Amino acid sequence: MDRLQEKTELLVKLTRLFDPLRRIAEHPREYNEQEAAEAQAQYAYEYHELLRDFRTFCQGQPRHNYVRQYSAFQFGLKGMLH
């Protein structure tokens, strides 16, 4: 798989991860407290998989280290948990 295809797959996974939270943010009155809590719990569970995939992507190009980008991405995803 080439890097552009890997990047596209990561964007699709990111969209899937945030989609339930986005829907709640856009239409909060359509969701009760339990549904919102479930979406947050699902995010907390699934974001680790995306982080793992992004780390693999960041380390996948020979002689390159995207540690700054990974750190920023990780910080942003973890920020959603608080």
Helix-strand blueprint:
Blueprint: H1 3-26, H2 33-58, H3 67-79
Helix pairs in contact: 1-2, 2-3
Keywords:
82 residues; mainly alpha; 0% strand; elongated
Overview of the molecule:
The protein has 82 residues and is mainly α. It has three helices and no strands. It has helices at residues 3-26, 33-58, 67-79. Helix 1 (3-26) runs antiparallel to helix 2 (33-58) and helix 2 runs antiparallel to helix 3 (67-79). The longest helix has 26 residues, at 33-58.
Short description:
The chain is 77% helix and 0% strand. The chain is mainly α. The chain has one domain.
Annotation field: number of helices: 3
User: Domains counted in the coordinates: how many?
Assistant: 1
Rounded to the nearest angstrom, the radius of gyration is 15 Å
Strand content range: under 5%
> Which sheet architecture does the biggest sheet show?
none
Helix content: over 70%
Give average pLDDT, whole number: 95
Low-confidence stretches: none
Distance between the termini: 35 Å
Helix/sheet category: mainly alpha
SSE string: HHH
Query: Quick one: overall form?
Result: elongated
Please report the total strand number as a whole number. 0
